[in-house]
Write a structure and sequence with these properties.
The complex is a heterodimer of chains A (323) and B (326). Chain A is an alpha/beta fold and 323 residues long. Chain A has 11 helices and 8 strands. Chain A starts with 11 loop residues before the first helix and ends in a 16-residue tail after the last helix. In chain B, strands 3-2-4-5-7-6-12 form a 7-stranded mixed beta sheet, sandwiched between helices. Chain B has a 5-stranded mixed beta sheet with strand order 9-11-10-13-14, sandwiched between helices. Classes of the chains: A alpha/beta (323), B alpha/beta (326).
């Protein structure tokens, strides 16, 4: 089948902004991998390399006042919604200047000022909370949307199904964003879901409006996410956005991916959204090097910021348990 | 002061809070037209409408999760979990979400959510509708846990729970719903973390929760005739615990019995005993006695159910052991 040229409506300048954001996320996560492998960062880290267009496309379509909850693969959403790389890196170093002040870590990134109600390390655990936030917006008739990010693996949890049912029943202002990378940790879609080839079928049982999108195409993701957000914002009901994407690396940093074929990895790499976007808008090597340099400067600064941040005192561990 | 039943005080308190603050709303299974399985939300739908009195599907995880999300956006939801046995279905949301958001965000968020639930034996529903699981929740930093044992206290404790900025698990007891007392029309808040001396005494302190408060009072009356003076304290709030009030009482009586309807093993009383051992050891003249349910699921046959849960005679026996009597 001949590849059909998609209709383009986003300005080249805007796409260049998306590309810059995607590159920032990519290089940030590559730096995180390096620092973690070098034992400089503590904890348990997951990167979303390959999924940057899905993250940036949806996040760029959101508006001020919208809120969201993320997953264990959370760095990209945080950066794309405005958390400064310094605050993010400082969190990964466990410093007080971090976006969760050292209490959260990579899997629990918060930044309430920028709408981040928390990255959740329980697969499917954060979804119901976004239904509740969307309920509050609906009850108060506010033009805001609560965005729940989750992966295809989460669609097998009871919490997901209860949340979909309740959201549609009550028409909460919730956007369900399924970042469908085809993997539930090490388990491929065909082993974990009967609808793995078309995850948007999940919405059928709830009579929920669903939109399918090529998550490697940042413009398409942005456009479809805008459409979905407008629908939800208007109070017509929640939307299930099925964002098909690719996870180029393992489930966690250090995952040897013994469960994955070389062909599958190569196929994911061939769909690198950053390469695709660069080709689409035609950025030459000189301009690309400028972009890389700009991003590198920011990331290097974030590492310095994280390293030089304030280490919490042991007794700080007993703060923030209660209001 | 009108004479009201425990369930009516719960209902009136919810109405009072909803009238005073439009951010307060209730949701749960069968709470609207039906008025709740135990009529604790009776008629609220008529005054406040379906937007603020929300009947939910049978989805305990989503009910609690929706409450958490709405609370994080400035609402003060009061969600009802019909039986505390069904808390098990929502525990992920309670333990990993509600209890953790404030902490994991480094203090950026608060979750002013109240989860009302009830349970308790005495009516033979069998093993899945009458457990006492409060100890599970007391074990989780970030949660407050309240157990309302009397019609006089239930309204004030509920009002404080609704206005607390932390997630509160609010335990009611099934067989208390019909208990009557003179209660003011307008409820005054009772601060969380304050125990109540229900009966003053000098020889032994009984620390009791839920239905065991009443059973302990009956035990105290029985022993008074035998010349034993029993003090009964209801902690009311299990977390935070009013340790000072308990220790003060032990300093006076030098003997303690802890009693609750939940199983004794790993029960709330085990923690109370440990606290008293740490903070009042020098004042204790006898080992602390524990009186709780036997280590079995709740049986259906009434005679077996009653054999499992602690009775007045068990409290009397516990008191006598601390006194070295018979």
């Amino acid at each position: 089948m001949a590849k059909v040229e998609k209709k383009r409506v986003v300005s080249a300048e805007r796409v260049r902004d998306f590309l810059r954001e995607m590159l920032l996320i990519r290089r940030f996560e590559e730096k995180v991998e390096e620092l973690f492998r070098g034992s400089e960062l503590p904890g348990f880290l997951h990167v979303a390399i390959g999924q940057e267009a899905a993250e940036v496309g949806v996040c760029a379509a959101m508006e001020d006042g919208d809120v969201f909850g993320s997953t264990h693969r959370a760095h990209g959403h945080a950066l794309a919604r405005g958390t400064h790389p310094n605050a993010l890196m400082a969190e990964l170093y466990g410093k007080i200047e971090g976006c969760s002040h050292g209490y959260g870590g990579s899997m629990h990134l918060y930044d309430v000022e920028n709408g981040n109600l928390g990255a959740n390390a329980v697969v499917g655990g954060g979804i119901a909370g976004l239904v509740g936030a969307g309920l509050a917006f609906a009850m108060r008739d506010e033009p805001r949307v609560a965005v729940a990010f989750f992966g295809d693996g989460a669609t097998n949890t009871g919490a997901f199904h209860e949340s979909m049912n309740l959201a549609q029943l009550w028409k909460t202002k919730t956007l369900f964003v399924c970042e469908n990378n085809g993997w539930a940790e090490s388990t491929p879609g065909w082993q974990h879901s009967p609808v793995w080839e078309d995850m948007s079928k999940r919405a059928l049982a709830y009579d929920m409006h669903s939109i399918k999108v090529d998550g490697q195409d940042v413009e398409e993701t942005y456009e479809k996410a805008r459409e979905a957000l407008a629908y939800v914002r208007s109070g017509q009901g929640p939307v299930f956005l099925d964002v098909e994407t690719k996870r180029m690396h393992g489930h966690f940093i250090g995952d040897p991916q013994v469960y994955r074929s070389d062909e599958d990895r190569a196929a994911a790499a061939a769909d690198d959204p950053i390469v695709l976007t660069r080709e689409r808008i035609g950025i030459d090597d000189a301009e690309w090097e400028l972009l890389e340099a700009e991003v590198r400067t920011m990331i290097d600064a974030s590492v310095e910021y994280g390293r030089n941040g304030t280490t919490p005192q042991p007794e700080d561990a007993l703060k923030n348990v209660y209001v | 002061m009108p004479e009201l039943m425990y369930r009516q005080v719960v209902r009136n308190t919810l109405a009072q809070a909803m009238r005073a603050d439009e951010n307060v709303f209730v949701m749960g299974e069968d709470i609207a037209e039906m008025g709740g399985s135990f009529k604790a939300t009776d008629g609220l739908i008529h005054e406040f409408g379906p937007e603020r009195v929300r009947n939910t599907p049978i989805s305990e995880m989503a009910i609690v999760g929706a409450g958490i999300g709405a609370a994080m956006q400035g609402m003060r939801p009061v969600v009802e979990i019909m039986y505390q046995d069904f808390l098990t279905l929502s525990l992920e949301q309670i333990v990993l979400q509600a209890a953790k958001h404030r902490y994991m965000s480094g203090g950026q968020l608060k979750v002013p959510l109240t989860i009302r639930t009830q349970g308790g034996a005495g009516w033979s529903p069998g093993a899945q509708h009458a457990q006492q699981l409060e100890a599970w929740l007391v074990h989780i930093p970030g949660l407050k846990v309240v157990y309302a044992a009397t019609t006089e206290d239930v309204g004030g404790l509920l009002l404080s729970s609704i206005y607390d900025d932390n997630p509160v698990i609010f335990f009611e007891h099934n067989v208390l719903y019909g208990q009557k007392a003179d209660v003011p029309e307008v409820v005054e808040p009772i601060p969380l973390g304050k125990a109540r001396v229900v009966r003053a005494g000098t020889d032994v302190t009984v620390i009791a929760t839920g239905t065991l408060v009443r059973k302990s009072l009956l035990a105290a009356e029985q022993l008074e005739a035998e010349g034993v003076s029993v003090e009964v304290i209801d902690p009311r709030t299990l977390q935070p615990l009013d340790e000072d009030a308990l220790v003060e009482s032990i300093k006076k009586t030098n003997r303690a019995v802890v009693t609750h309807e939940a199983v004794t093993r790993m029960g709330f009383g085990a923690e109370v005993a440990a606290v008293l051992q740490e903070k009042a050891f020098d004042w204790l003249d006898a080992p602390i006695e524990r009186v709780g349910a036997k280590f079995a699921p709740l049986a259906f046959a009434p005679v077996m159910e009653q054999a499992i849960i602690p009775q007045v005679a068990d409290v009397v026996a516990g008191i006598n052991r601390t006194l070295g009597r018979g």
